[in-house]
Amino acid sequence: MRYYARKFAFYLVALWAALTLNFFIPRLMPGNPVDILMAKLAQRGGTVDPSARRAYELLLGTNSGESLLSQYTSYLGNMFRGDLGISVSSFPTPVSQIIGEALPWTLMLVGIATFLSFVLGIALGAFVGWRRGTWLDSLVPATTVLAAVPYFWLALILVAVLSSAWGWFPLQGGYDVVLWPGWNADFIGSAIYYGTLPALTIVISSVGGWLLGMRNMMVSTTAEDYVLTAQAKGLRDSRIMIKYAARNAVLPSVAGFAISLGFVVAGSIITEQVFSYPGIGSKLLQAVQNNDYALMQGIFLVITVAVLGANLVVDLLYALIDPRTRVSG
Amino acid sequence: MFLKARRFSRTRMAAAGLAAVAMLATACGGSDTAGDANKDTLIVYTGQSGDWQLNFNPFSPTQIEGPGTIFEPLFFFNNIRDVEPRPRLGKSFKWNADGTQLDVALRDDAKWTDGQKFTAKDVVFTLDMITKNPAMNGTGYKGVATAVDDTNVSIKFTEPSFMEGPQVLGKIFMVPEHKWKDMSNPSTDVVKEPVGTGPFMLDEFKGQAFTLKANAGYHSGEPALKKVRYLALSGNQSGEAALKAGQIDWQTGPVPDIKDVEKNYPGYKAITIPMNQTALFTCSNAALGCQGPQTDVAVRKAIYYAINRTQINALAFENTASEVSPGAALLERDKDQISAKLQEKTAPMQPDEAKATQLLESAGYAKGSDGVYAKDGKPLAMTLKVVAGWTDYITAVDTMTQQLQKVGIKITAQQVSWNEWSDARGRGEFELLIDALHQGPAPDPFYNASYFYSTATTAKVGEAANPNFSRFSNPAVDAALTALKGVDPEDTAARQPYFDTIQTEIEKSIPYIPVLTGGTTSEYNAKKFTGWPTKDDLYAFPAIWARPEASEIYLKLKPAGQ
């Protein structure tokens, strides 16, 4: 039990440290939101009268002269209550609403894509590792090359060929804008259709990593005595591969998968940028470009909690699976 | 928006390269992407990146649409051509002799989209509301309005305010008293169901797109354009892709190979309008805390003469920029106000290196062994800040660096993030930076001068200037700007001496070293709709993000074949 208490305490401290960094890092950045609003309006021509500056300072409540310490305490209090504040770049929409609207898109897209590439990578990796030394080994460099190609380049090639040229997939967006978002077959079908190409790009670019890791673990487990024993017993080849070798080889990949699930929440900024996808990554970009502290902190908080949560789950699961990790030094 | 245009330059180059692949492939396949459902819908991309957040409050800085389309001003001021303001909700207006009272006659046949009649009371309510809520008062309106009767409003000012006219009449958007008077906080209300008098009303709103539809009861007749759809895309690069696929009908922003738009995007046309002066901003005023060689006017002049503008235009701006006046007025639009007393009518397009070096030498600079001028042991070296990713400006800066090296001025370009750059610009913590000067609400050089050259809009180094970033301060210019506020803009002869003073003083000290007049480029679908503005008929500044200008263009557009 002490093990679990220690783990929970550690994660609490990590959460506090992350929250504190979230608070200070954006405030160390140069620039302020009012300047950015002014510059944006200046580019639209027109209402950039110097009086506008005062109006926006009043509206956004910047320049309040509040001390950093009192801002910090009220920030922690608000975070504790789940009040993430008001976004400056989409004033006056609450940050929680923006995140609430964007998060499901990212979770579905990146979540499903990550799961698919994991399953695909593990299955292929196990098979390639089992048949090491055959022509199948060439799958490893082939997929790692795909992973090494800069992601935006790969995505743009697929867009140019599959969307622009052949017209198989829509060019950009999350759904057909003629439809109404909601739980109906038309809309869900459209969302899946629009999400296929972005998901495909993520799968193609990340499957290589899983494949390589799984294949190499597979190679070392097949050299273990228990595999030799199983073979000596005359068990079916496929049974040895799946039940004996792959089952043990997959452990490190499972840990890696749990951690990458945490990062799913952060979304893929580039995917969302290339496909104009309405997810959390594009919101994060928007927040950074506009010095929108509240939105940045809200998104960081969600990411932090997700990553810490995923790690905690992995830690606890590992303690169950492998009792050796529980022994305290 | 050209801010965004400059991001992801590498991606853009990749896209351009891929376009060739795509073209080859289309030759075999060929697909018609323009669906029948969108036949009469104008689909636009404003440059906004990311999803729409509902906000139709015309006084909110983060509003997504409304000015001109849903909510109307009293008059439309064409800020690119010197023409009479076009009536919208107003019929005519008249100033008293000293510019302290503005009488406006309103039209009597306008209705709000909920059926109620528009009256002078709504105008007074709107103006009173923004005076009571400083957070909504983006134009700095300081008048007192009274309704004379249902169709006449009188606005009094405490000081001569001729120059306030275009703001009050053209940039304040009228809202209905019966809908707004019960709002608890009108400055932060997002106005979910906007009720206006304008030619368009909200049809439907979704995060990825919202649509406006024609107002059948519009006072000047239902517009021929029935629907306008605003798409949310992630930036200019996706805007280009959508343009290529024929999914959008109008966007404002540069695309590669601008001169061949008609060939690369069949059915589309492009228009480039010179609007903002690109300049090297200098922190020029040592008295307000500026430091560096650029505080010496001889150095600024030497740079002015040493740069090769023709070369910069060709290498950095695809020849879309044009000549620039050293006196801070626009050459074409303000040609009647350009002072005859200026030493040079336009900044030289070709460099005059002899003049540049002579200016430096007579100011006490001597060429060192490394070919760089120096004075009092300090070399003539400056840093020049440019935003990382703004590829055209970066090219311009690199070109200038080489040109200036030839005359012995050493420039070090610094690419910084936009936030860092705008922070340095605001506080005056820079030596040189490249940016553009913007214009005001009406075709009048007064506004640009009052924004960027007046003592009232500057601040000491370390404090935010708003927006006189060069810290220029000149009593003669300040006096001329104050005097102009009290001269009827119709009386051009009385105004000219003040413009002469402003322009010659600016030419003498060039706190913003003029480079070129930058062009704003739009690409639009001329096959689907007719009635677009042209260079001969510039009835409004053509930029999709310009409000209320875009609404004037919607009013003139007709689906092709009608």
Question: Any overview of this molecule?
Answer:
The complex is a heterodimer of chains A (329) and B (562). Chain A is mainly α and 329 residues long. Chain A has a domain at 100-291: MetI-like fold (Orthogonal Bundle). Chain A is 74% helix and 0% strand. In chain A, helix 6 crosses helix 8 and helix 11 packs antiparallel against helix 14 (293-321). Chain B is α+β, with helices and mostly antiparallel strands and 562 residues long. In chain B, strand 14 (373-375) and strand 15 form a beta hairpin. Chain B is built from 16 helices and 21 strands. In chain B, strands 8-9-10-1-11-19-12-18-16-17 form a ten-stranded mixed β-sheet. Chain B starts with a helix and ends with a strand. Chain B is globular, with a radius of gyration of 25 Å. Chain B has three domains: 45-56 and 194-273 and 520-559, Periplasmic binding protein-like II (D-Maltodextrin-Binding Protein, domain 2, 3-Layer(aba) Sandwich); 71-179, Dipeptide-binding Protein, domain 1; 274-519, Dipeptide-binding Protein, Domain 3 (Dipeptide-binding Protein, domain 3). At the A-B interface, helix 2, helix 3, helix 5, helix 7 and helix 12 of A face helix 2, helix 6 and helix 12 of B. Chain B: One of its GO terms (molecular function) is peptide transmembrane transporter activity. Chain B: One of its GO terms (cellular component) is ATP-binding cassette (ABC) transporter complex.
Order of helices and strands of chain A, N to C? HHHHHHHHHHHHHH
Number of strands of chain B: 21
* CATH fold label of the domain at 100-291 in chain A: MetI-like fold
Query: What is the CATH class name of the largest domain in chain B?
Result: Alpha Beta
Helix content of chain B: 25-40%
At the first level of CATH, the class of the domain at 100-291 in chain A is Mainly Alpha
Number of helices of chain B: 16
Poorly predicted ranges of chain B: 1-35
Mean pLDDT of chain A: 83
Our count of domains of chain B comes out at 3
- Quaternary assembly: heterodimer
Strand content of chain A: under 5%
End-to-end distance of chain A, in Å?
A: 15 Å
Looking at the overall shape, the CATH architecture of the domain at 100-291 in chain A is Orthogonal Bundle
Fourth-level CATH superfamily of the domain at 100-291 in chain A: MetI-like
Structural class of chain B: alpha+beta
For the biggest sheet of chain B, the summary is: 10 strands, mixed
Radius of gyration of chain B: 25 Å
Helix content range of the residues of chain A, please? over 70%
Subcellular location (chain A): Cell membrane; Membrane
Protein name (chain A): Peptide/nickel transport system permease protein
Transmembrane segments (chain A): 9-29, 105-130, 151-171, 191-212, 249-270, 299-321
InterPro entries (chain A): MetI-like, MetI-like_sf
